Amino acid sequence: MTYKIAILGGGPGGYVAAVRAAQLGAKVAVIEKTQLGGTCLNRGCIPTKALVAGAEAFRNVKKAGEFGIKAGNVSVDFIRLMERKNQVVERLRNGIHYLFQKNKIDLHQGTGKLISFKEIQIIKEDGTKEVITAENIIIATGSEPALLPSLGCDGEMVITSNEALKLSMIPSQLVVIGGGVIGCEFASIFAELGSRVTIVEAMANILPSVDKEVARLTQSLFKRRGITVKTKAMVKEVRKRGPEMTVLLDNGEEVAGDKVLISIGRVLNNRGLGLEDLGIALGPQGEITVNDRMQTNIPHIYAIGDITNKMQLAHVASAQGLVAAENIMGLDRIMDYKVVPNCIYTFPEIAGVGITGQEAEEQGRRVKTGKFPVMASGKAQAMGETEGFVKVLADPDTDLILGVHIVGPHATDLIGEAALAIKTGITAGQLVQTIHAHPTLSETLAEAMEAVHGRSIHT
Ligand SMILES: Cc1cc2nc3c(=O)[nH]c(=O)nc-3n(C[C@H](O)[C@H](O)[C@H](O)COP(=O)(O)OP(=O)(O)OC[C@H]3O[C@@H](n4cnc5c(N)ncnc54)[C@H](O)[C@@H]3O)c2cc1C
Fold first, then answer.
1. From atom 27 of ligand 1, which residue's Cα is the shortest distance away?
2. Which atom of ligand 1 approaches the CA of 9 most closely?
3. What 8-state DSSP symbol labels residue 13?
4. Of 97, 300, 405, 438, which one is the catalytic site residue?
5. Is 47 in the pocket of ligand 1 (CB under 6 A)?
6. What residue's CA is closest to ligand 1, atom 2?
């Protein structure tokens, strides 16, 4: 049998593409070497958010006294917390298997490699081989944690995000090398669970990709929570000293920890796929080069997700998957990266969409800024979560919303409204004309839009 589409990798890019293609009538095969759901479900988005939810529950109980609730001495049962995380992941993974059955998608378990323009060889766990044929191929093989040989990752004391999600004990002292999104999420989780955390970041501030004011506030809130942040600090070496590890910095400082988490980025899963043999074009980082229809230089071979290195986010991988599947099935879709929300699940949460303050400066673009403090929100006061702000960047001539950046409770849920506003071309003035329910956190967004015109009511 020749499949209409064969998809290499069953992460949020691959499995979403498979479901959409099947909905449109295609016979689809997915080749997956580990587990359906990919990094996102098994080693990324979902397990980390299950841990965030556990840490948040602990945090809420610890501060229950503020609300007049006597919770007594509370402690964390870390084994149970991890079990719950595994249950959440398993439930969702079973959900994907169900979707495959429902949509009659064939799952081929094994490691796939392109051996011709229309054939994929699959090596199964027992070493046996199978070759399947497809009219179209989508490559969705994702990425893995990046390592540096000098840091000597042993998977026990020096670990990556993969092992951090399998720990059996809360580290007493955790050193996080790399203050990007993943490093900050783990730092925030373990600090809340009781670890003494130090972040070592080579750049001038943590979270270099987010709006500068957001990064600065987050850094100071981290410090208030007891997280030590060392910026402009390069790690020279990680050494084992008895039961501890010592991280040596280039300025001569030493940081000790019982666990060292390396979160310095991701490498693309482009090896052993047969890409070079088929002449599939790669970019400077080894990413598969695609057009905005997600086609590689070989028109019936597509690539989606982290392997395209556009934005390493699950929702981008899925959106690219929908575009690829629909184009193969004869619909005409292009991928638009202009409005992609970026969420960081720290305490408090961070979310942004559109241009940042520094991007506006770099582009020499004039903007009007409106800012509203979370502290001034009735709902936030009632919740006892008052840290943060909402910042809006708008075009001074047209009033169009160009960027929204939020630090505060439920920032990751609030950003959806901002993304819709930017995507549909709503102005700051128009957004305010929609009545926002009181008391809700969404009022902070409306107030920040008012602040663009100097008319915020509650500041
Ligand atoms: C700790 C952590 C937290 C994260 N949190 C978030 C978050 O909150 N929000 C967000 O948007 N993103 C988050 N991400 C990023 C997100 O997980 C990725 O962007 C997303 O999973 C990429 O999807 P993908 O389908 O391209 O690849 P992947 O999810 O990596 O899936 C690729 C799949 O291909 C399989 N595969 C690879 N090679 C082969 C082969 N030769 N044959 C067969 N199968 C193969 C792999 O086993 C894997 O299952 C996080 C990542 C990490 C590490």
1. 142
2. 34
3. T
4. 438
5. no
6. 44
Mutate to test the pocket of ligand 1, among 40, 130, 147 (most ligand atoms within 8 A of CB): 40
Tokens of 23: 């909905």
| CB count in 10 Å sphere of residue 338 | 9
Dihedral (CA of 267, 273, 279, 280) sign: negative
How far apart CA 452 and CA 369 sit, in angstroms, is: 5
245-281 tens-digit pLDDT: 999 999 999 999 999 999 999 999 999 999 999 999 9
Q: Which two tokens stand for residue 305?
A: 């997700």
Tokens representing 80 are 């149970």
User: Does the global pTM surpass 0.85?
Assistant: yes
Q: What percent of the chain has pLDDT over 90?
A: 96
CB–CB of 280/261 below 8 Å?
no
Task: Tell me the pLDDT tens digit for each residue of 62-111.
Answer: 999 999 999 888 999 999 999 999 999 999 999 999 999 999 999 999 99
Residues 183/261, Cβ–Cβ less than 8 Å:
yes
Quick one: the chain helix, strand, coil %, rounded to 5?
35, 25, 40
Residue 141 CB less than 6 A away from ligand 1: yes
Cα–Cα distance between 37 and 189 in angstroms, integer? Answer: 23
Interval between CA 4 and ligand 1 midpoint (Å): 24
Asked whether 140 lines ligand 1 (CB < 6 A), one says: yes
Catalytic residue flag (residue 405): no
Residue 290 in 3-state DSSP? coil
State the alpha helices, DSSP H only, in 336-441: 357-362, 378-383, 411-424, 428-433
Could you tell me which of 142, 165, 345, 144 has the C-alpha nearest to residue 261? 165
